[in-house]
Design goal:
With 423 residues, this protein is an alpha/beta fold. The protein contains twelve helices and 21 strands. The chain starts with a strand and ends in an 8-residue tail after the last helix.
């Protein structure tokens, strides 16, 4: 469910007509709905209400990579969520948005010494470490600072998530985590290192999961591993079950499992683990909470279907180019007529194609369109290819709206280039 609906024939974000934002800010522009974000947080929390998770309850750490806008993170922090970060930049963004350090989990395969020092100085909740060499580096850093680093090993369970290959992370050939069969030895090695408080297990098998079967299989393996680790003398008190729950993009496809079904599965599998559970939702919280608002430049005749050329491009929304991802495309002011078209942007790449042979609302030059379900992995992946400005972002609440990231002036982009003294 989202809060983007037609009112008097015009698409609104909550109570704000999208043409108002387009006229004031220009296009393309990302628009986020506070009410949708808050509702998704409430639904996810309710889904986990009955899981066993110690006296403190589960820690829900939003995956900052999905949408790192500070206003979005501040909204989530106000709702009680923590943050799952994978870089120093994401850590600093989360802290700047008001996320308490003791609700931050640091994941990722390539943490540097500098990033480790920052996270230790901030006092984060936990490092999810992904290799024995990383454990050794963190041990050295923590020991030099006179601190102890709370850690969990991310385990690669060799479970295929059934999602797109580029967002699958739990197979044996993926770069993430310690191989399941190597886990006992890795924990033994880490336990012997100074400066580490080895206390947890983590797993994350992929993103945009549409079937609970692979997650259940991975979690069952983690439950068995926890028992083995305890038998080996390790005090395991946390289990991070990652994120990845999918959201509906293509209305023609089955709806992914709802958070309630996910929560019921987690409750059944983790009963008796006697740990504090951690979760890293991203897409399921913000995906449907955002749209990319764009304007039609022209409609170009094609050999077959026409090309609808919009002012948004692959640099603004990369998912279709990267993953052949589907986004529903709607007219902001539909007139009841339909068309079949290829929707493309102005970038000089054939890959700058959002959809081919798409049945959609009929549009004409100057019309506004929205790319739906663009709140996750949209603006965060944008770039300046073809010297295009980074897309601005707007946050809506009720009948109020505010620009939460300005459009970058092209002059600023050019000024960032420095000429060497010989030119």
């Amino acid at each position: 469910m989202d809060h983007f609906n037609l009112k008097d024939g015009v698409l609104h974000a909550e109570d704000v007509p999208l043409p108002v934002i387009a006229d004031a800010v220009g296009t393309p522009v990302y628009v986020y709905s506070t009410a949708t974000i808050e509702r998704h947080v409430a639904v996810f929390k309710a889904a986990l209400a009955e899981v066993e998770s110690g006296t403190d309850g589960p820690l829900i750490a939003f995956a900052v990579k999905a949408n790192p806008n500070r206003a979005v993170l501040a909204t989530l922090a106000k709702a009680g969520l923590g943050a799952d970060v994978v870089s120093a930049g994401e850590l600093l963004r989360a802290r700047a948005a008001g996320v308490p350090a003791d609700k931050i989990v640091f994941s990722g395969v390539g943490k540097t010494e500098e990033e480790m020092r920052l996270a230790l100085s901030e006092g984060i909740f936990q490092f999810n470490i992904e290799s024995e060499p990383e454990a050794e580096m963190l041990s050295d850093v923590a020991t030099a600072m006179g601190l102890r680093a709370p850690v969990a090993f991310r385990i690669n369970p060799n479970v295929i998530a059934g999602t797109h290959a580029k967002i699958s992370t739990g197979g044996s050939e993926d770069k993430f985590g310690v191989a399941y069969d190597r886990a006992i030895a890795a924990y033994a090695r880490a336990a012997a290192l100074p400066g580490l408080d080895v206390r947890g297990v983590a797993v994350h098998i992929g993103s945009q999961l549409t079937d609970l079967g692979p997650s259940r299989a991975a979690f069952e393996k983690i439950g068995a591993l926890i028992a083995d680790l305890r038998a080996a003398g390790h005090a395991i008190v946390t289990a991070d079950l990652g994120g990845g729950l999918g959201v509906p993009y293509d209305p023609a496809k089955p709806i992914p499992p709802l958070p309630q079904a996910y929560g019921e599965m987690v409750r059944d599998v983790t009963r008796g683990w006697n740990v504090r559970l951690l979760f890293e939702p991203g897409r399921v919280i913000v995906g449907n909470a955002g749209v990319l608002l764009s304007r039609v430049i022209r409609v170009k005749p094609g050999v077959g279907d026409p090309f609808v050329i919009v002012d948004a491009a692959m640099n603004d929304l990369m998912r279709p180019s990267l993953y052949d991802a589907w986004h529903d495309i709607r007219s902001v002011s539909p007139n009841g007529a339909d068309m079949t078209a290829n929707i493309v942007g102005p970038i000089c790449e054939s890959g700058d194609t959002f959809a081919k042979k798409r049945a959609m609302d009929a549009v004409a030059p100057g019309d506004l369109v929205t790319f739906m379900t663009a709140g996750a992995y949209g603006a965060t992946m944008a770039n300046t290819y073809n010297s295009r400005a980074l897309t601005p972002e707007v946050l809506v609440t009720g009948d109020q709206w505010a620009v939460v990231r300005e459009r970058q002036p092209i002059e600023a982009l050019i000024a960032a280039d420095k000429l060497p003294p010989w030119i």
